[in-house]
């Protein structure tokens, strides 16, 4: 798929995955698992064509909501093991990278797509969302860690494919977008 509609669909799936990651962070409920930063440049605003919006996660991740509700009742957060602290740190960094990616797509890439449509690989964004939803059902443990790794790899693939698609257009207007995506990718590679 190519063009703004494809990118909007891709962003919608990524936002669905990101919402799940944020709910997971809240469900861990410890000081070791900071919440992802909220989008700073229009990430919370809906753009054109987003009337459908990202899928609602409330029905899909009830265990996450239950854990959040427990914290809301004042139950103390238990101290985390070293593995839990590391998983929370990775989760926060993947959520932050996903947030920055969506921001870059919404603010930098979407306006340029009207000039020069290029391929957007929707399948990867759908896979990212699905991995995040599956991760929410795991909550913790080996499978959770594996899903977190797969979500990380999927984000990396999305960014790499966007950079490759942009490379086909020598327009100088794409230079800031490529630079921004490369920076997000570089930060993601350090996780």
From TrEMBL:
Q: What is the gene name?
A: Dleu7
Protein name, as recorded: LEU7 protein
Region Disordered: list its residue ranges. Answer: 31-57
UniProt-listed InterPro entries: DLEU7
Q: Per the UniProt entry, what species is this protein from, by scientific name?
A: Crypturellus soui
């Amino acid at each position: 798929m190519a063009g703004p509609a494809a990118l909007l669909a891709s962003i919608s799936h990524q936002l669905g995955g990101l919402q799940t990651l944020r709910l997971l962070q809240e469900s861990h409920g410890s000081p070791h698992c900071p919440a992802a930063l909220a989008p700073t440049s229009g990430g919370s605003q809906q753009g054109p064509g987003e009337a459908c919006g990202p899928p609602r996660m409330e029905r899909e991740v009830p265990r996450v909501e239950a854990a959040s509700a427990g914290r809301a009742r004042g139950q103390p957060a238990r101290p985390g093991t070293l593995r839990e602290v590391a998983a929370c740190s990775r989760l926060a960094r993947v959520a932050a990278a996903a947030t920055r990616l969506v921001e870059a797509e919404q603010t930098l890439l979407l306006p340029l797509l009207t000039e020069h449509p290029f391929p957007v690989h929707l399948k990867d964004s759908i896979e990212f969302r699905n991995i995040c939803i599956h991760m929410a059902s795991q909550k913790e443990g080996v499978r959770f860690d594996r899903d977190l790794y797969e979500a990380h790899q999927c984000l990396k693939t999305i960014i790499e494919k966007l950079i490759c698609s942009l490379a086909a257009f020598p327009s100088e207007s794409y230079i800031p977008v490529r630079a921004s995506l490369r920076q997000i990718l570089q930060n993601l590679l350090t996780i």
